[in-house]
Amino acid sequence: MTAYVEECRREWKRLGVPDLLADEMATDLEADLAEAQADGVSAAEIVGESDPRRFAAAWASERGLVSAPPPKKKSRKWLWIVLAVVVAFFLFVGGMSALALGLLAPTSVHTSSRPPVRVQGFPATKAVPVPSLLGLKACHAERIALNAGLSVGKLPTRRCDAVVIRQRPAAGQLVGPGTRLRLRLGRS
Amino acid sequence: MFTIMRCMANESRRSQMLRGVLDLCLLAVVVDEPAYGYEMTRRLRERGLSIVGEGSIYPLLGRLEREGLVATHRSASDGGPPRKYYSASQSGQRALTEGVQAWRDVRGEVDSVLSTIEAEVAE
Lengths: 188, 123
Fold this sequence. Notes:
With about 190 residues, chain A is mainly alpha-helical. Chain A has helices at about 1-15, 20-40, 45, 50-60, 75-105, 140-145; strands at about 130, 150, 165-170, 175, 180-185. In chain A, the strands form 2 sheets. A 3-stranded mixed β-sheet of chain A has the order 2-5-3, covered by helices on one side. Chain A is flat and about 65 Å long. A two-stranded antiparallel ribbon of chain B has the order 1-2. The interface of A and B includes residues 58, 60 and 63 of A.
């Protein structure tokens, strides 16, 4: 892995990392890699990145030693070109098929003059299922209820660790948004 | 094919989840006793966390250092060259405490949503 470390050192110098810091980082990295190798730990677990330039740049950047972001991964432009060609092919085939069907099939247009049907009796907003809060700590239960769009009575902070031993409405019932849940608390 | 794609998706999910707490894990392993880079990786492994495929800890350590969450000093290691030791600074300890609380809150909320789901997935 000495070659990897040397490549890192070159990258740090190229990025303008002061020599002292670059040498220090390289020395630490080399010692760590040697120790890992002795332990049978893969270098991948230590450096995590096969490209030394990217690794070195990321480290220096996160330390605030350089302002430039790490170089991007190898371009995958060719992959996008292949993808674009495949998509274009399918669009062409699909378009030709649609054209052929359009020429052969009779054209029909459906129109309707009926007004939209309005169904009466449904609430404007969606019902909310009551979550199961039994056994949870009071503050935790309160958060879950609030996240579900429901409300609970004011819980004293000192009872945050108390446990919910009863709840109304029961879990699973559908209620309107904002419905207030009644919780009975027991000792934690 | 689907199995491979599902494995890749799971790996990606694991990475994303770890990314949010790896800094806390690093602080946690140096909060009691300073450690140098590789020693931190070793401590993570001893506690059951493998970071293979999750990138390196060095950039993250660099950020913690830049933000003043870790203090560093250079000292001789056992039989090896002098090493750079990291320890949680005061603000690092505070960040760790707050981060752990946030993690527990989120974990509790997510658990309460997911706890009803069967863990066993049929292949």
